[in-house]
Amino acid sequence: MDTAYAIKLFGALFAIMNPITNLPIFLSVTQGASKAAQRQIALKTALYTLVMGTAVALAGTQILTLFGISIDDFRVAGGLVVLMIALNMLHGDHSSSHHGSDAEKADYPAPETVAFYPLCFPIIMGPGSITTLIVFWGQAKGLSDQIAFGAVLGGMVAMLAIVFFFAADLGARLGPTARTIMSRLMGMVLAAIAIQMIATGLKALLPGLG
Questions:
Q1: 154 with 107: CB under 8 angstroms?
Q2: DSSP letters of the chain?
Q3: Does residue 76 or residue 209 have the better pLDDT?
Q4: Residue 50's pLDDT is what?
Q5: pTM reported for the whole predicted model
Q6: How far, rounded to the nearest angstrom, does the alpha carbon of residue 162 sit from its chain's CA centroid?
Q7: 119 in Cβ contact with 46 (< 8 Å)
Q8: Can you tell me the distance from the alpha carbon of 31 to that of 15, in angstroms, rounded to the nearest whole number?
Q9: CA pair distance 137, 8, nearest whole angstrom
Q10: Distance (Å, rounded) from C-alpha 45 to C-alpha 203?
């Protein structure tokens, strides 16, 4: 197994799906729900994320092929999307592609029914997460990397489930300063990964750049 592969995947997914920085969003979307209802939503959100993430990884490359798009084309385009999300994080803003526009937020459903939309999609499984999963699954070399991919995705979903499950308690203890620092740090990591995606894709599409 390529340890560097697993570490990069974890870094990318943690930066995008970061349960700490998404905690205030979870609390906002589930505002008005009881603690027991919030915990049910947390577990449903984690389950939906795992199912959707697995489906995206397994079917993503085939879908791209259907549209005549190579993994390197998608790597460049997806890298640009991830870079935009990273720059928003560095500037302390939320990307509307992941967290929804103001109009979409106004139409969010009742707190008890938000596990899939908008929590799983598009807040957690937005364009950046989908891009990352498709690109890294396409880079997996052999069964060991595929197992590492599943372990990292499963571990990330477990972290989301735990943080969201105890959201009410954690939200009272996690200050805005800690969330801001985490967001800036993860934005820098994500930007570096996005640049690597773009560079790798461009070198494959334009060999002269290598």
A1: no
A2: --HHHHHHHHHHHHHHH-HHHHHHHHHHHTTTS-HHHHHHHHHHHHHHHHHHHHHHHHHHHHHHHHTT--HHHHHHHHHHHHHHHHHHHHTT---HHHH--HHHHHT---GGG-IIIIIIIIIISSHHHHHHHHHHHHH--HHHHHHHHHHHHHHHHHHHHHHHHTHHHHHHH--HHHHHHHHHHHHHHHHHHHHHHHHHHHHHH-GGG-
A3: 76
A4: 97
A5: 0.78
A6: 16
A7: no
A8: 25
A9: 12
A10: 37
pLDDT, tens digit (0-9, with 9 covering 90-100), for 67-85: 898 888 888 988 898 888 8
Q: Which structure tokens are listed for 129? A: 């997460």
Q: What pLDDT is attached to residue 98?
A: 53
Percent over 70 (pLDDT), the chain: 88
For 204, the token pair is 């494959």
Q: How many CA atoms lie within 13 A of 180 on its CB side?
A: 5
CB 13 within 8 A of CB 130: no
- Nearest C-alpha neighbor of 72 from the set 139, 147, 150, 24: 139
104: pLDDT strictly greater than 70 = no
Which domain range does residue 80 map to? Answer: 3-209
Q: Which pLDDT tens digit goes with each residue over 187-208?
A: 888 888 889 889 988 998 888 7
Number of structural domains the chain divides into: 1
